[in-house]
Design brief:
316 residues; alpha/beta; seven-stranded mixed beta sheet; binds N,N-dimethyl-L-histidine
Length: 316
Amino acid sequence: MDRAFRADVLAGLRQAQKAVPARWFYDDEGSQLFEDITQLEEYYPTRAEAEILEARGAEFAGAIGPGRAVVEFGSGSSVKTPLLLKAIAPAAYIPLDIAGDFLREAAAGLARQFPGIPVHPVEADFMRHVELPPSVSALPKLGFFPGSTIGNMVPRTAVDLLRSMRGTLQADHGVQPMLLIGMDLVKDPAALEAAYDDARGVTADFNLNLAHRINRELDGTIPVEALRHVARWEDELARVEMHLEATRPIAFEVSGERFSMQAGETIHTENSHKFTRRSANLLLAAAGWTTRHRWTDSEELFSVILAEATEPRNAP
Ligand code: AVI
């Protein structure tokens, strides 16, 4: 049993608005369901970002230049990485991920595919400051954070993370780090809600898997058939929220503690913030990053931003 999972779930279920952090979606079942989501017709972000990474390689090379060490945050299966490594001439590739076996497997695959690029996998939680291997400490860095995972964080956490990335990426000598980051765009709410509530119900299964996971791992008795998946656009906060809503009054236990929900009451399971050009610039600026280039796909659904760390300035 994962003690952090238990602590997060119990603390979250005790709140007036029940909530469980979205990072607990990703057990083996959840990770597979997320892979399935990325293939869905309605889920445009993966497709749109891949279009940008495929089409803009020459522009990335011009704006980034050769010789940087690419540090990928939460590299997972590193599916998007070859597109970037092919385009620029990096000095090294450092995938960071919390899942060690998966990380080493993906890193070995990339090392075979790019024999000229030294690959140094680092098993770490990228939400904290990460010590990079000494062999790359002098190299200028490019952080790579695709997928709009930044959108799953509330602004305060997003700024903390972006600032900590800036620290992780600092080189020993002078050259400022850069960051290539995927950020999903604000658009028609109907398209957004469809992306998070697909016709085949894969996203519903992904959301409901969290309740199954609680039952499996924390001696839970949640009647999952009495929960329904809800995805709704919250315009004021520019985010899609996912919830699990009780369709009737229910009572259940988790790790021996009793909980109940009224009909219509929800467990908040995910935020997926969407950005405009300006809100993206502002979020990055709050963490010490200045936007240098911005690319979108042909339908203007998704953006990839190249930012550079800049010195803080207090006066205008
Ligand atoms: C991982 N993350 C960027 C996805 C998103 O779009 O917010 C997670 C997801 N949740 C439901 N569908 C996809």
